[in-house]
């Protein structure tokens, strides 16, 4: 009996590319696997377990490839892919999302440590030969798996995680004492730079509508000092032209006027205008202000950072800023009339 010729090196590489390339359907990949495995003289029973093809089908696929090349094992009619997963398949996918990273699912996903809609779509297509028309179906699968959407945060090179943890351990007792002292106010402070450069964020609109927002050519900006009362969620914001130790020294008495008879525990970052001589002079002369400094490059520890994010989303995103002072005044008004129950080391107005 005449035996078929062995695959050449080039043919093997061609088939291996087909198997590894995410552009091929699951059926095409299984056909390629069958051809490659039989060439390696793997037992047909074992090939059947891997591919689902019986002995006769395996040799037929090999023959077709040897005569017709890679096109012979491709799908003849792509047709419309299935749009629905079965209940069992959905359960399997959700279990996979919960228990495995993409990198644990084979060489095709080896460089992916986190799930995305794109990776999930590729996994569903390669595993179940189902292609969804929109990402909404992928979102629902993630939701069923109790996953939430997160944008990876940026971490400064200067950040020292051990230093941050040590800061949390050392400062928590002081914050706790102040929290239970009715005569002490806890304030977290930060500054922001508000520019008239238009910022945008995604919005939902009816199909066919495409918004356009005017932008300005001449740049202008203002600064805002913000103090968040952790016990009440009350914000105290002040508009300034800039931020430096002299302006800081002017703002601190305004804060004191809001709490004339209270001790103030003030937490802020290590900016030069906080540690500057003029600002420190005001604090010394006050005599009833205790300051604590957030660790370097750890903005997430400061609740005031969340206040800025909320304010930008509500007041300036997707808006044309024609007058910088008017826009800043509106921003400050929003902050000073809105409660922000954000947490500092587990303590907040919601506690």
What do you see in this structure?
Strand 2 and strand 3 form a beta hairpin. It is built from 13 helices and five strands. Strands 3-2-1-4-5 form a five-stranded mixed β-sheet, with helices on both faces. 44% of the residues lie in helices and 11% in strands. The chain has helices spanning 9-20, 26-39, 44-51, 55-68, 87-99, 117-128, 136-144, 161-180, 245-258, 272-275, 277-286, 304-315, 324-336, and strands spanning 184-195, 221-229, 235-240, 263-268, 289-293. The chain has 351 residues and is an alpha/beta fold. Helix 2 (26-39) packs antiparallel against helix 3 (44-51) and helix 2 (26-39) packs across helix 4 (55-68). It has three domains: 9-73, no CATH class; 87-144, no CATH class; 161-202 and 216-336, Ribonuclease H-like superfamily/Ribonuclease H (Nucleotidyltransferase, domain 5).
Give the CA-based shape.
Answer: elongated
Evaluate the radius of gyration: 31 Å
Distance between the termini: 84 Å
What's the story with the biggest beta sheet?
5 strands, mixed
Q: Based on the coordinates given, report the CATH architecture of the largest domain.
A: 2-Layer Sandwich
Q: How many domain units?
A: 3
Q: Work out the helix count.
A: 13
List the helices and strands and how they pair.
Blueprint: H1 9-20, H2 26-39, H3 44-51, H4 55-68, H5 87-99, H6 117-128, H7 136-144, H8 161-180, E1 184-195, E2 221-229, E3 235-240, H9 245-258, E4 263-268, H10 272-275, H11 277-286, E5 289-293, H12 304-315, H13 324-336
Parallel strand pairs: 1-4, 4-5
Antiparallel strand pairs: 1-2, 2-3
Helix pairs in contact: 1-2, 2-3, 2-4, 9-11, 12-13
